[in-house]
Amino acid sequence: MEKVMLSFDKVSAHYGKIQALHEVSLHINQGEIVTLIGANGAGKTTLLGTLCGDPRASSGRVVFDDKDITDWQTAKIMREAVAIVPEGRRVFSRMTVEENLAMGGFFAERDRFQERIKWVYELFPRLHERRIQRAGTMSGGEQQMLAIGRALMSQPRLLLLDEPSLGLAPIIIQQIFNTIEQLREQGMTIFLVEQNANQALKLADRGYVLENGHVVLEDTGARLLANEAVRSAYLGG
């Protein structure tokens, strides 16, 4: 039987008086890539936020590794081996690549730092080439690689990716998705929030479609990719 690593059980969330999520239920099994697709404003980033404690769920439960983390502080959740790559990358622009990676390893085991950074450089050779360069002078694609590498430095068991392809050239998008596939092959569990539905569904084991804060579809990635309604709404027909 597959182990459920993360679940949302009828989770609702608000921004002030505005309800952004409506009793959302979903789950991610250990070792899966699960993607969440939807239009801008559907509530995708809000859903990731409730997992990380901001905003807090106004009702329902978020459970990670059999622990109810609904009311946990963000720092405590990150210590539970959850890492997020936020939309827009948010690297430390004045720091070098290597200094950014060191910041990502803040919660990791200190004696494994060199092992982790070597692994990240193997995943992203470009980061090794740029390791003494200030992050703010790098291209958008390189900054996205750095943002993912920084998250991986914390030794996560669950990696959250919020729009990793946003604003990137097609060749860089393919590199990023190839790396996500490598991580899955190495056993990492990944929750991928992505507007590039075609790429995301090709990669995902399963997917959910979010509309106006409601989950309206759940299926395998392949079936969602072939679904006429999904193709019409998110894949250009």
TrEMBL record:
It comes from the Bacteria. The keyword Transport applies. GO terms for biological process: amino acid transmembrane transport; L-amino acid transport; neutral amino acid transport; organic cation transport. Keywords: Amino-acid transport, ATP-binding, Nucleotide-binding, Transport. Gene3D superfamilies: P-loop containing nucleotide triphosphate hydrolases (3.40.50.300). CDD domains: ABC_TM1139_LivF_branched. Residues 6-237 form the ABC transporter domain. InterPro entries: AAA+_ATPase, ABC_branched_ATPase_LivF/BraG, ABC_transporter-like_ATP-bd, ABC_transporter-like_CS, BCAA_Transport_ATP-bd_LivF, P-loop_NTPase. One of its GO terms (molecular function) is ATP binding. NCBIfam families: PRK11614.1. Belongs to the ABC transporter superfamily. This is High-affinity branched-chain amino acid transport ATP-binding protein. It comes from Salmonella enterica (Salmonella choleraesuis). The gene is livF.
